[in-house]
Each structure stands twice: as C-alpha cells, then as structure tokens.
TrEMBL record:
It comes from the Eukaryota. This is F-box only protein 10. Residues 1-49, 567-593 are annotated as: Disordered. Residues 378-516 form the Periplasmic copper-binding protein NosD beta helix domain.
Amino acid sequence: MMRRRKRKERKGSPLSTPRSTDSPTVATVSLTSWSSSPARPRPLGLLPPPELRTLQEELEQDREAQVLARSVQGCLMRRCLFRDGKGGVLVCNHGHARMESNVFRGLTYAVRCVQNAKIIMLWNEVCGCRASGVFLRLSAAGLIAENNIHSNAEAGLDIRKGANPIILCNRIHSGLRSGIVVLGNGKGSIRSNQIYGNKEAGIYILYNGNPVVSGNRIFQGQAAGIAVNENGRGLIVDNVIWENQWGGADIRRGGDPVMRNNFICHGYSDGVVVGERGRGLIEGNHIYCNRGCGIWVMSSSLPQLSGNRIVHNCIYGVAVFCRKDSEDGGEGDGYLSGHGGVAGDNFNEEGELLAWESDLDSEDERFSSRRPVSVALVEGNYVGHNGAVGLYVKSSEALNVVGNAVHGNKGAGVTVLQSGQLTRLVANCVCGNARTGVTVETGCQVELRGNGVYDNGGHGVSCRGDGQVMENDVVGNRGSGIRLAESADIKVLKNRVQTERGWGIAVLGQVKGQVQENVVFQRRPGSTKPLLHRDAGNGVCLLLNNTLLPCAKTSSGQADALWALENPPPRPQLNSQSSATLPGASAHHAMSSRITTRVESGCHNSGSVLCTIL
C-alpha cells in the first residue's frame, strides 16, 4: 500500500537537508558516554577520539560520492509512505532510483537493489521490517546517507555478492540482529554512522566480505561492536567502539581484517577477541577501560598485535589462551540460518528473475595478513595499568613477544603459565609491575633475550620452565633478580643482574643447565643474601665465569661509587641518549623516551623494534 503525501519541491543542492515538519522523526542520540565526562574518563596520555563527521564534510572529501549523487537520475520517490506490504522498492537490471524523505514501515523488506542497479537514499526512515531493511546484491551500488534505520528483524543493511555502496552518516539502531552485515564478496564504504543498540554485532563481516569501515560510532550493542568471521576481511580504521556487551571487535574462523587507530573502550567484556583461527593486523588501536581483557587471543590464531595502547582494562592486558568458554557460542554460529534467505520468503515470485546463487561461494583468492606470519606476534605495544597480569600466556602454540612496554600492571608483567611450543620474549621493557616481572611456570619453553626487567614488586625473573635467559638486564626488583626453581633445564647467560634484597641469581631445587658469564651487582651495602646462590643438594647446574660485584663501604662509612649499566647501555638500548652514568633502573626510566634494539636469532625480518616508555 502506498499513500502519497503532499509534495513540496525544495530548491538548492540535491543533498540539502529537508526541513518540512512532517518528515520522519529523528531520535536524538547522546554521544557523551565515551568522552572525558566524569562517568567515562579517558586515561591520561590517550589522544581524544576523532570527531564524527557530517554528511557535508564526508562529501567534500569524497569525489566519488559527489559524482554518484548527481549521476543517479532514475525514478524519484519523495515523501511517500510504504507500509504493511511485502516489499517497498525493488531496483534491478541496471535501473536507477532516488528516494528522499520516505517512510518504510512494517514491510517484509524496504528496499532491494540488485543486479548492477544504483540507488540514492537520503533522509528516509526504515523500520519494523520483517527481514533486512535495505538489501544490496549482485554489484549494486549507490549512496545511502542520513537515514534512520531501526527496529528491523534482520540486518538494517545487508550487502552481498559484489555490491559496493557508500553508506554515510546514518543512524542504524535497535535491530533484532546486526546493524550492517557484509558477506559473499560484498564491499562498501561505511563511514560516520551511528550504530547502536542492536542485538547482534553492530557491523558483521563474513564470507569474504571486504568493506572499508571508518569513523563510525558503534556502541551499546548486545553483542560485539564489529565481528569478522568466516574469512571476512575489511579495513577498519578510526572508529569509536564502546559499551558493547561482547568484545569491541571479535575476529575468528579465518577472519582477517586490518584494524588501525580505533578506540575500543568501556566494553562489558574484552576489548578485542581473536578467536579460533582468527588472523588480522591489529595496529595502533587504543584499547582501554574494558571490564574483561584488553586483547584475548585463542590458540590456533595468528594475529599481529602491533603498536597498540592497551591500558586500564579490568583483567589481563593481553591474554593468549588455549580456548575460551564462549567460543562454541560465538556470534558467528548459525548466522545463515536466518540470513541465507530472508525469513524464508522466495523473492523470485516478485518477478526479479534472478539466479540466486549460493551466498557462500567466493572468489578463488586466498588472502593473509599484510606480511606472511606463521607465529602469532605481539610487537611494539604499550600494555599498562591493567587489573591483572600485563601479558598472560597459556597456549599450546608458538608465540613471539617483541619490543613491548609492559608497565604498572597490578599482577606480574609477563606470565607464561603454559607453552607447548617456544614462547620468545625479545627486547621488551617490563617495569613497575606489582608482582614478578616475568614468571615462567613448569613445563614451559621460553627464550628471554635482550629484555629490560626493572623495578617490579616481586622477583625480576622467576623460572620453573626450560629454555634460555640471555643478555637481559634485571635491575631494581624487590625480590631476587633471577630465580630458578624445581626441575627447570635452563641456560642463564650474559645477563646483568642487580638485587636490593634477595639473591642476585638463585638456583633452587634440582635445576639443570648452566649459569655462565653473568654480571651480578649489589646496590645496597649490608645485604645478608649472597649474590649467587645454589642449593647444597644441587650438583648438576654448572656455575661458570660469573662476575659478582658486591657494594662495599669505604673507610668513611659511605658506600662506594654507584655502578653503571654500560657497554652496552641498558637494555632495550636507548636510541639517542647516553646511559653511561645511569646507576640503575629508576634513572633509566626517567631518561628514556624511546628504546630500540636489534632482534636476534631469526626473529621477524631481523629488523629493529621501537616501543615507548611513558
């Protein structure tokens, strides 16, 4: 049923905003809950999120959208009411249509654009559809801007089969499933939208969907903010994702997006979840104040976590786990049961005369992350002030942890609880954590090389597992410098260790291996514990060529000159500052603004790694 309202022509730009009093009502949405208000503080040192752009600002920077808005000159529908029927508007077979200020209500679907058709949708209200609100398929295109799309039974917008629309400045909310779904090689540019209050993901990308998602506000959903599943891809940049019930971003089962410079905060679960077989480049994001972990990675996943700031999350900063209890109940399960068709209806009887190929087919292209990766990589991140361990590893697969700053966490800096294969910690700065700097439990295989472990509340390095600890600086920790226990089989070579209270290096129990060519300092005079300790019953661990430098008093009763970490300077090495006079970790922290080191033993590209100490 279609009823025409009184038609009133407008003058000016084809994208000028309608001002009539009987246009669809628009709900006001508050965007203050993620800002620096007292209820939602932003941690110090974080940049403010980008502002939400207006349609005019988007069009000024997008020549393609401007041309598209002027080139679609087909049927014009303006200020019409479509309600209580099966379909609203069908555009197909290279057809063009323009829809402005209409209301689509209580239909099975509002708009279907298929088979190389193009549409312009401006200032419409699409609500209460029994299927998806706007459906684009088979290389359809168009501009969908400043619409109010809400309360639909399926996705607000459904993009499939090579469709490539531009979606700008819409409000997509209160849906019974996802806000936007992109699948079956669908593309699209999704920018500056407000997507909120949906029961499933704000944006769901799967089955080779590959959109550009930028500058959106995605909030207060009952599932994930963005979900990338079943070989979905996508470029996801500059979005603000907050207060979602599940992960801010959820990547699994072959999902392989690029996520850059997003603000993922104040979620009721984890910031980012990389589930089973998830991939992707997660780079330069601000992940903070989530009630779960900052980033949760499951075994069999191969993400690259690079240059993120992961702070003030309630549990772990980064957790690498064998599995997660909710894995089998993830949002991707059973998705096509409701989306493969549209509520069980056969639209061929509408006269589309289309061959409805399976939505699960895909181009024969195989994609991986931007650089080949065979081992999960955690590189160059700042992981600070989280409620438990900074980096928690309980995994059966190899992991490289390179050039990170792990600072001020309320548990240990790094805990390796389980590692069926080698976990490599190279050139990290682990400082100021409430408990032990690095903890390695029984049965784990680790390599610690070139790290700086400073001023932690427990031991510097506590190791019950196997592997090697080489060329690290372990300074200023409250317990022993390096503590080896139980039946570990480990080599401790060429480290520099300073202790204030405990042993410099302690060999306890039936530890096997060797402790060789280490330099052990004592900062305070009068310590009752020796710099190098081995239990009397241990005859299998070799102690060779270690240098012990106790702190002696002079005749005047003063301690002798403070020692210095030099040749090389404190690890990870300072980039541009001399550290020859640094007495220990505190001065090192005060003077360091950037640290760099050369990665050894075949780590990624044998290149240099930067991380920042704030």
